[in-house]
Amino acid sequence: MNDFEPLIAVFSCHYCSYAAADLAGSSRIQYPPNIRVIKVPCTGRVSVNHILRALECGADGVYVAGCLEGTCHFISGNFKAKQRLQYAKDLLSEIEIEPERVQMYFMSASEGAKFANVAKEMTEAIKELGPGPLRPTKSE
Amino acid sequence: MIIAQRKPMEEIQAMIDGFEKILVLGCRGCTTVCCAGGAKEVETLSTLIRMDGKQKGKTVNTLEASTELQCEPESVRPILEKLANQYDVVLSMACGAGVQTVAKLFPDLRVLPALNTNFIGMAEEHGVWTEVCLACGDCILGKTAGICPVTRCAKGLLNGACGGASEGKCEVSKDRPCAWQEIYHALKCLNMLNYLKEKSQVKDWPIHPGRVVREDLREVEAT
Amino acid sequence: MSFRQALESGKFLVTAEVGPGKGTDVEHLLKDAAIIKDRVDAINVTDLQSSVMRLGSMAVCHLLTDIGVDPVFQVTCRDRNRLALQSDLLSAWVLGIRNVLALTGDHPVLGDHPQAKPVFELDSVTLLEVIGKLNSGFDMVGNELKGKPGFLPGAVVNPGADNEAAMDLQIMKMEKKIKAGAKFFQTQGVYDLDAFEKFMKRVEGFNTKVLGGIILLKSVGMARFMNKNVAGVFVPEPLIQELKEAEDKTRVSMNIAVRLIKGMKDLCHGVHIMALGWESKIPPILDEVGL
Q1: Both B158 and B80 in a single domain?
Q2: Is residue B202 part of a domain?
Q3: pLDDT at A110 over 60
Q4: Is residue B214 part of a domain?
C-alpha cells in the first residue's frame, strides 16, 4: 500500500562520509537509490538554511553525514553541524513538521557498510513518516 | 549592541495570517551580530513561513531584503521604495527602533515585529549575550572599574552589595554573579577600593521617552 | 520604657519580630505579640518578607502600638519610589510609630509575584539619609516640612557573608549606614559564635549598637532549608545533629538559643530573636539566660 519512494538529500563531507560512499560503491554494497548526495568540504559548511531549503525544494528527509566525533579534518566542523541539525529540528517542530525528517550521522572513510546502512535506515524511517508535507501525495 | 531574539513561530504565524506577500526585512546592524535578524535569519524565517504556508494550503509569498541600519531613514527609504507594490506587509527583523523607523516612514504600510528586543548587551562568547547597559543617561563606569551596577546588579544598587549574595552569585539567579563583588575585585585589581567609600548616590532617572538634540547637526533652511 | 530609652540606657537589648500574614487576619499575630511584649524592648514587623505579598508593616505596627508595644517599622526599598517612601514614613509617624529599620529588600523574583517590577529607587543607605532629613524637618529635595518626625533609625548587617569580597562590602556598607544615621543594627541569624566574634572585632569602635540575630531552629528540615536558601545563615552540622538526635526537639532548640544568647552577652549589645511562630518559647528562654 505504501508505494511512496522518499527523496532524501544527503550532505556528505569530502574527508569521511563521501569517501565511505565511494567505498560502498566500489565494494558493491547495495543501498537505496532514494538518496541524493551533495558533497561538501566539511559538514561544518552545512547551514540551517541548506537543510530547510532542501526540504522546501522537495526532499522528504535530509541527513548530514560527517566524520566520527573527534576526527573531523577541520577539527570541529562536525560538532557545528550537529548543533545546527538540532536547531533545524527545533525550527521544524515550531511549524509542526516532524523533526525526525532531519538527522545527523557520523562515520569514518573506511565505513562503506555504515554509509549503506544509514541510507537504508533513513529511507525506511522516511517511508514510515510518509511524504514530506511539501510534496503532493500520489492521491492528489 | 542591541540583542534581540526571534518571536516564537506561533506568534509570528498569527501576526502574518491573511497577508499573501510578505517582505521579510533584515538589518545588517545589531541583529546580524546577534544572529537574530541578519540575512541568514531572513532566509531561515522566509523558508519557514513559505513551508508552513504550503503545508496549510495557504498562498504565502515572501520577499527577502535587508537594510544597513534599519533605525536610519536613509538606509530604509531606498530599499522599501525600490520594492514598492511587491509586498503587502513588512515583517521586520530589526530591533524595536528599526520597526518603528519603517512604520514612521511609511504610515500607510503595515509593519510587524518578528523579533523581541531584549537589551543592550555584549557577547560573553559567541552565542551567549548578557545585558550590560540600561541606557540610564548618567554613566558611572569610571567609578566602578567598567562594571555597571545599574544594569548588572539585579536591584540596581549604587552604594554597595545587598546581603543576598551566596557564593558570589546574585540572589536572583545562580547564573548571575553578584555585580558588586565583581566591582570589588575589579577595583582591588586597579588599587581603587577607596571608590567604594565615596559619598552615597541616589539615581535621578531620565524621563521617557528620551530625546537628544544636537543643534549643530540639524538641517537648516538655506534662505 | 521605649526602645529609644532602652538603647540609650546601655542595657543588653532584646528585640523580637512578627511577620504579617497573607490576608487581613491579625488575631494570631497580636496574640503572639501579647505573649512577649513585656519581655522585649521592641518588636519588629517585617515588610513583605521574602517578597511575598502580605499585610503591610505599617498597619501592623500601628495595631501593636494599641496594645502597648514599641514597634520597629521595617521598610524595604523594593516596592516604593522616593515619593512613597517619604510619605509612608510621615504616615507611620502620625500612626504612633517611632522606630524604623531601613532595608534594601529581597528581589521580587524570590516571592509569589515574581513578575512584579522592582523599584529599588533608594537603598538602605540612601533611605537612612532620607530618614535623617525628614527628622530634621526637610524632604529629600530640601522643602521644609510642616511637622517633622523623630525616628530612631536602624539597619541590618550580615556577619555570615561567605567570602572576603562579600564581607568587606558588608562592612563598608555598614560604615556608610552609620554615617547615614543608623543607631542600631540587627544581624542575620547567627549560629557560630566564633565567626560572630571575628566579625564583632572588625567592627569594634564603630559608633553604633549591634543586636545579634537568633533564629529559633524549629526542625532539622528548617535548618537544611536555611543552609540551602537563606544567604548568610549557616547552621553547622554538629547543631543539626544535636537537633536530629534529640528526643525533645523543642527543648534542644531552646537550649541552643540559650547558649547562643549567653555567648552574645559578651560580644554585642543585644539580641534580635526571630521566633517564626514560637513566640511562646521566648519568655522561658529569656528566663534561663537571666534577661
Answers
A1: no
A2: no
A3: yes
A4: no
The residue assigned the cell 517619604 is C86
CA distances from A122 to A21, A137, C117, C265 (A): 15, 19, 51, 77
- Average of pLDDT values for B128-136? 96
A134 vs B: CB within 8 A: yes
User: How many domains are contained in chain B?
Assistant: 2
The verdict on ipTM greater than 0.85 is: yes
Q: Tell me, yes or no, whether B204 lies in a domain.
A: no
Q: Are C39 and C9 contacting, i.e. CB atoms less than 8 angstroms apart?
A: no
Radius of gyration of chain A (CA): 15
Q: Is residue B157 domain-shared with residue B114, that is, in the same domain?
A: no
Among chain B residues, the shortest Cα distance to A94 is held by: B9
Q: Stretch A31-39: mean pLDDT, rounded?
A: 96
Please give the residue range of the domain that contains residue A89.
Answer: 8-111
Averaged pLDDT in 10-residue chunks for chain C of 291 residues: 96 96 96 95 97 98 97 98 98 98 96 96 97 98 97 96 93 96 97 95 95 95 92 92 92 95 96 94 95 88
User: Looking at residue B199, what is its pLDDT?
Assistant: 85
**Contact criterion met (CB < 8 Å) for B163 and C162:** no
Dihedral pair phi/psi, residue C276, rounded to 5°: 50, 50
Write the DSSP string, C145-200: PSS----EEEEEE-TT--SHHHHHHHHHHHHHHHHTT--EEEEEE---HHHHHHHH
pLDDT digits over C52-62, tens only?
A: 999 999 999 99
Q: Is the pLDDT of residue A136 over 80?
A: no
Question: Using CB atoms, which residue from A49, A56, A97 is nearest to B40?
Answer: A49
The domains found in chain C, sorted by start residue, are 3-287 (3.20.20.220)
Residue A53 in any domain: the answer is yes
Asked whether residue A133 is assigned to any structural domain, the reply reads no
Q: What's the number of CA atoms in the CB half-sphere (13 Å) around residue B159?
A: 26
Dihedral sign, CA of C3, C4, C5, C10? positive
Residues of B in contact with A47 (CB under 8 A): 40
Q: What is the mean pLDDT of chain A?
A: 93
- Alpha carbon of B9 to those of B6, B14, B180: distances in Å? 8, 8, 39
Inter-chain residue contact A97 with B8, CB threshold 8 Å: no
Residue of A nearest to B13 (CA): A95
Residue C180: its chain B contacts at CB < 8 A? 200
Residue A85 lies in a domain: yes
Mean pLDDT value of segment A25-34: 96
pLDDT tens for residues B28-72?
Answer: 999 999 999 999 999 999 999 999 999 998 989 999 999 999 999
Q: What is the CATH number of the domain that holds B8?
A: 3.40.50.2300
What average pLDDT does range A121-129 have in this prediction? 96
Residue A55: which of B8, B10, B51 has the nearest Cβ?
B51
Hey, how many other C-beta atoms are within 10 angstroms of the C-beta on A65?
30
> Structurally, how many domains does chain A consist of?
1
Does residue B91 sit in the same domain as residue B142?
no
Q: Do A94 and B54 touch (CB under 8 A)?
A: no
Cell numbers describing residue A112: 562503506
Contact C104 B155 (CB under 8 A): yes
- Give residue B147's domain range: 134-197
Last residue of a domain, one of B54, B87, B118: B118
User: In the listed set B92, B118, B144, which residue is the last one of a domain according to the structure?
Assistant: B118
Chain B residue numbers with beta carbons less than 8 Å from the beta carbon of C175 are 197
Structure confidence at residue A139 as a pLDDT band (50, 70, 90): very low
B31 inside domain: yes
